[in-house]
Write a structure and sequence with these properties.
108 residues; two-stranded antiparallel sheet; alpha+beta; 2 domains
Length: 108
């Protein structure tokens, strides 16, 4: 019983530490300026399998160059795929993993 109580206490302490770290990360990325994010589009065929169908549509995407080392031709590119909600530059806010990786590796 004592061992169980000790495990619960240790788990709670670790969870609290993780929550503090996530809170710090969240606060640091809340400062993202939307003017740092470019909205762009590219055109793709509506039907890739029918050569007679000339219809196409634009796919919107967003680029944040905040952490990019433009002098490094091997800088990594990190991609966040959405598609389940409205498109907005805000999709690049508070995506802890993407932002952390881009900052650490000076990527796009």
């Amino acid at each position: 019983m004592l061992l169980l109580a000790l495990c619960v206490i240790c788990s709670y302490a670790k969870l609290s530490l993780n929550q503090q770290v996530m809170q710090q990360i969240s606060q640091s990325f809340m400062t993202l300026e939307l003017n740092e994010v470019e909205s762009m589009t590219y055109t793709v065929p509506l039907d890739h399998f029918n050569a007679n169908n000339q219809n196409d549509f634009d796919i919107q995407y967003f680029v944040n160059k905040k952490f990019l080392d433009a002098n490094d031709p091997n800088a990594p590119l990190f991609v966040l795929l959405g598609g389940e909600g409205p498109a907005s530059p805000k999709v690049l806010q508070n995506n802890y993993v993407i932002d952390s990786l881009a900052k650490k590796h000076k990527g796009l």
